[in-house]
Amino acid sequence: MANILMVGKDLPESENLIKSFELQGHKIFATSGTEIGTTVSNENIFTFSWNKASSISAKTLLIQAESRLVTIDRVLIVFDGSSYAKKFESEKIEDCTQAVENMISGYIYFCQTLLGRLTQKNKNVSISFYLKSAPTKADILSAKGITQAPCTNNVAIAQAAFKALAENYCAVMNEIPDVSVFLCQSEPGNELYSSDRETGAWILSYFEALEKLKNKPSSKQAVCWVKTGGKMPGSFSLFK
After folding, report:
1. Pairing mode, if any, of strands 3-11 and 45-49?
2. 98 CB-contact burial (10 Å; exposed 0-12 / middle 13-18 / buried 19+)
3. Whole-number Å distance between alpha carbons of 163 and 120
4. What is the pLDDT of residues 200-236, one digit of tens each?
5. Exposed, middle or buried by CB within 10 Å (0-12, 13-18, 19+), for 54?
6. pLDDT in tens, 153-207
7. CB 106, CB 52: distance < 8 Å
8. Burial classification of residue 8, based on how many CB atoms lie within 10 Å of its CB (0-12 exposed, 13-18 middle, 19 or more buried)
9. Alpha carbon distance 57, 133 (integer Å)
10. I want to staple 65 with a disulfide (CB 3.0 to 4.6 A). Which of 1, 29, 34, 164 is the partner?
11. Three-state DSSP class for 97?
């Protein structure tokens, strides 16, 4: 069984994702969105109240995860645009700072902290960046069949920033020996978009398939986004 660190989508919203991991017997360290943390009556689940506006909190998060899990085998970094769209509905300029701190700064602080730790430790680690995208105003204009209301500009910009962040950290992290990275995305209309439980199970299967490969994908291959529910590496021609 694996020890999994999941950040970005906080408890209690991440409960269904986490449940899919816990049902397979994995230990999970997850972030909580409340100041006092979320109480979980499960010996395999640990939580940490992450202040995304603080670089120190990002460092403390990783230290606490290593302390609780002893070793971290997998890291899942989640950006749920559909969830953020409900939280950041305001377009007022005074709300921009909070939006940037929660949807951009926190991810940069954590990823830079994680990168520094990966270069210090020689251990097998698998990492995934998962983007669940919300439709933007531009998407509504350019695509047909989108029934969801568009997210605000703050969310749309942060979503694009996460995609760039994921691709570039993936390229760097995948060059580190014993570190494998993959990017996955779910969009409205994707068969797993509305089910975090099924998405979590698919991500687990992808981790497992990736770790069984004799040779990990090159960084050029790793920075290509895979749709959730898509083909597993190794059994198909995905990495040819």
Report:
1. unpaired
2. middle
3. 26
4. 999 999 999 999 998 899 999 999 999 999 888 875 4
5. middle
6. 999 999 999 999 999 999 999 999 999 999 999 998 888 988 999 999 999 999 9
7. yes
8. buried
9. 26
10. 29
11. helix
